[in-house]
Each structure stands twice: as structure tokens, then as C-alpha cells.
Design goal:
single chain, Rossmann fold, eight-stranded antiparallel sheet, seven-stranded mixed sheet, elongated
């Protein structure tokens, strides 16, 4: 495990402290040595600090004090102090242990001969060196609950019963917005110029010419409430220049989309429809969902626009407008799985199985796939504060990686987006994310159309060769 705090850890600590914080590394045991003198030289008089210990079992825990460390010996009571754990055996299990409100004992100790010293988390005195690849710190009174409310936890559940660490760090806690890490993925500049560039690409887009297809069909599939219809409204809003709501959206346990809808987007500037259709269909849910036969008909282009799904019967040739012999223009050219990033960790097994089954249908037909990861502002507070942080957030990066693993798709094909939900007017960074994602979908659609054209040419050559 990386011994340096990551963005997720810092956000959690900020939440516990109760304000936006920046974290500046003052002291690192493996770098600065295990002497109290060095610790006090680097940490005394600086202000509030967080001490973080990384033990040999990949448990991460520590303590916060709002007081400045100092060298004169005395016990003090810091009512704002708390102990915590972030990881247990490398699992993210954040838990705060606040200063006890019942006991009145002091809980933080200052002494020139001691390193960081909390009553229930004592680190080292005099000198501690590395032996057998780790530092053996004090275990006495470790997480004993004498001055901190452990909530039933103890040294075994927090630290696996020992205090042997690979490193210890002390961070100065400063007021201010969290400084995020370097970008985890290359991203466009958050400027109106960038937004306009993507918008022009989509406005001028025409499907792969040799295919003879007039419009690219982009099919959205996802769980109920993931934001399929909201994405359609977001794209429509961008081209209208104001917030709009063509597709039905809202909060419901059951899918609000009851039919298969092929939405067209009109560009008011040219008064022409774009050369694409964004296709919405019923959300995936554990109860009623799209039948396999209906999905096959959608992908193959048999079902007409506005087809209403029947909860009892599957679609058949008797459906009004059923396309018995669909051509390439009727088929789906790219499939986008729309996934709610805020619920990815608790995605029901039944939903996941259905999504994977749908994916197998798509793969069998050679249709390219993408994932649009929505609601990332609910996953990361820094993204909620500023969408520009989307590609700087380690939380978002981890969620993208998880989605790629769960769906079984390359990470580069997972695109975080932000739909217009609570906003009253358009925002450039939201536009850029949505337009960039749609642009990628159209590029994938062209890949499919080109492959189909090549396949038709090969078949034609084979027939001619036989003749």
C-alpha cells in the first residue's frame, strides 16, 4: 500500500475535522528517522496535525489533534482530538473514534523525549529504528478506550493486535480546498472553445459515407435511475442553449421509460436534425426488465420507434410496424451502458447479471460498447464542488476502474459524465463531458459501420468468386 495519503483519505479526514482542509507532510518516519528531536524540530508550533500509521497488515490508523505539538512536558485535554482508522487489512473501512465526553482525563502528551503521543495511541520515545523491515511502536494502551470512544472496537479490530508499522507520517492540517493529485487521464481544457469544438464535431457529423446509413443509432442501456433519459435531456439542452426536458425523468423504483424511443436532436442554428439518434429503452431492474427477445429485436433493428414493452408477452411479428427485414440503418451501431457511479459498490447481483447478459448479446453482434458513468458528483465531494476536478479525483479514477472491471470493458471506454439535474442554466464543464462522451460514441458507431461495410464487401467478393 502506498504510505502517502490519497485523495479519498484526505476527503474523509476533512469530513471528520469538519471543514475543507489541505494536508502538508511535515514528518515521515522512514525519511526523517525515529528520533523525538527530529519529530519536534519538524512539527512543533505548526498547528493542528494528523498522525497516520501504516502497519504491516495493511491497517491504516492514527490520531488528530487541534493543538500544536510542543516540547515541554505536559498532558493536555483536546476535546477536538480524535483517533481513527482508514483501512483494515487493506479494506477501506473509515471509522472515527472521538474524544470521550464522559471521561475527563487528558488525552494528548507533549514531551521533548516523545514522538506523537495520544493516550490511546502512543508511538515512540527516545529512538525507534527499523528491525526486520518494520518499526515496532508502543502497543501499551493501544486503542484501549480510556480517553476515546472506541464504539466497541479495540486494538485487535483496528490494528490486528499490534503496532508494528512500515511507516508513520505527520501532516499539518491547513484551511483551504483540498489540493488534488495530478490528472489520472488526459482531459480537454475546460473552456468555451473546447465545448464549441466538440459541439461543432457533432453538428457536422455524418455516418461513415460508404455505409449509406443516414443516422447513427446510439442505444442507451442501464439500471433504473442511472440517468439514461437525463443524458438525452442534457444533450438536447446543450443544443437548445437552455435546460430542457424532452425525455421523462425523475425518481422512481420502477423504470419511467416504458417504450423504445429514438430521439432526434435539432440544431436551432441550422434548423436541421443531427445525423444521429439517441435511443432510450426501459431501465434494467430486478423485477420486470427487457426480455432477451425484445433486446435482440432492438439491436437488430426490428422494433419500430415508440414500441411499448409488454410486461407479459415478448415482441413478435404481429407488433404494428415490426420491421421484418431490417437494414443496416435500422440496427444499433453502438451501445452505451449508463451506470450510476454512486451505487456501483451496492449494485444488486440480479441487476449485474442482467447487464452482463445484455453485454453478451451486444458482443455476439460485434457492436462496440461504452460506459457512461453518471452521478460522480455524489461520489466525490471535490467533484461536487467543481466539475473541473473530475479527472484529478482519485475517487473517480477508482470508480472508473471498478466499472471497467464489473462490466468487463477497457478502462478507456468508461467515461465519467455529469447530467443536468439540479442546475438552472448551462455550465461549460458539464457540456464538455457530455459532448465528449457523445463524440466518442459516434466514433465507435463509425467503427461498426466501417466493419459492416468491409464485411459486405468481402461477402460480395466471395459470391463473385463462386460465380
Amino acid at each position: 500500500m502506498d504510505v502517502k495519503l490519497n485523495v479519498n483519505d484526505k476527503i474523509q479526514l476533512s469530513n471528520w475535522i469538519g471543514r475543507d482542509c489541505q494536508f502538508e507532510l511535515l514528518y515521515k518516519l522512514s525519511r526523517d528517522g525515529g528520533t523525538p528531536e527530529k519529530f519536534h524540530e519538524l512539527c512543533d508550533g505548526k498547528g493542528p496535525t494528523v498522525t497516520v500509521l501504516y502497519n504491516t497488515d495493511n491497517n491504516v490508523y492514527g490520531g488528530y489533534t487541534s493543538l500544536s505539538w510542543r516540547s515541554e512536558g505536559s498532558w493536555c485535554k483536546d476535546e477536538l482530538s480524535f483517533l481513527f482508522k482508514l483501512y483494515t487489512n487493506n479494506r477501506w473501512e473509515p471509522t472515527k473514534f472521538p474524544a470521550s465526553k464522559i471521561k475527563t482525563n487528558t488525552n494528548v502528551y507533549f514531551n521533548s523525549s516523545y514522538g506523537p503521543w495520544f493516550s490511546d495511541l502512543r508511538c515512540f520515545d527516545k529512538y525507534v529504528g527499523k528491525t526486520s523491515g518494520y518499526y515496532s511502536l508502543y502497543k501499551h494502551a493501544l486503542f484501549c478506550g480510556s480517553d476515546y470512544d472506541m464504539g466497541g472496537k479495540n486494538v485487535q479490530s483496528v490494528a490486528n493486535g499490534h503496532n508494528n508499522v512500515t511507516d508513520l507520517e505527520v501532516y499539518l492540517v491547513k484551511d483551504g480546498p483540498l489540493e488534488l493529485d495530478i490528472a489520472w487521464r488526459d482531459h480537454p481544457d475546460w473552456t468555451i472553445k473546447t465545448s464549441q469544438k466538440f459541439k461543432e464535431y457533432i453538428t457536422n457529423y455524418e455516418p461513415f459515407e460508404e455505409s449509406g446509413v443516414p443516422e447513427a443509432n446510439v442505444l442507451l442501456i442501464g439500471q433504473v435511475g442511472a440517468g439514461k433519459s437525463s443524458f438525452i435531456n442534457t444533450i438536447n439542452s446543450i443544443f437548445k442553449g437552455d435546460i430542457s426536458s424532452r425525455a421523462c425523468t425523475g425518481s422512481a423504483e420502477k423504470s419511467l421509460t416504458k417504450s423504445f424511443e429514438k430521439f432526434r436532436v435539432r440544431d436551432p442554428a441550422t434548423k436541421r436534425f443531427l445525423k444521429l439518434r439517441i435511443c432510450d429503452t426501459r431501465g434494467v431492474e430486478e423485477g420486470f426488465s427487457i426480455k432477451s427477445e425484445d433486446l435482440g429485436f432492438i439491436l437488430d433493428g426490428n422494433l419500430p420507434n415508440h414500441y411499448t414493452f409488454n410486461p407479459v408477452e415478448k415482441a413478435s411479428l404481429k407488433v404494428p410496424g415490426f420491421i421484418k427485414e431490417p437494414s443496416l440503418k435500422d440496427r444499433m451501431h453502438v451501445v452505451v451502458f449508463v451506470i450510476d457511479g454512486s451505487t456501483l459498490d451496492v449494485l444488486p447481483e440480479g441487476i449485474l447479471k442482467k447487464i452482463k447478459k445484455i453485454k453478451s448479446f451486444v458482443v455476439d453482434r460485434g457492436i462496440p460498447q461504452l460506459v457512461f458513468l453518471t452521478k460522480m458528483d455524489k461520489v466525490c465531494s471535490q467533484v461536487e464542488r467543481d466539475i473541473d476536478n473530475m479527472f484529478l479525483s482519485e475517487i473517480v479514477a477508482n470508480t472508473v476502474n471498478k466499472a471497467a472491471e464489473v462490466i468487463g470493458i477497457p478502462r478507456a471506454h468508461v467515461l465519467p459524465v455529469k447530467n443536468y439535474e439540479k442546475e438552472g442554466e448551462l455550465r461549460t464543464n458539464v457540456d464538455i463531458l457530455a459532448l465528449s462522451a457523445l463524440r466518442r460514441a459516434l466514433m465507435f458507431a463509425d467503427d461498426f459501420l466501417e466493419n459492416q461495410y468491409d464485411l459486405e464487401q468481402e461477402n460480395a467478393h466471395a459470391v463473385n468468386a463462386k460465380e
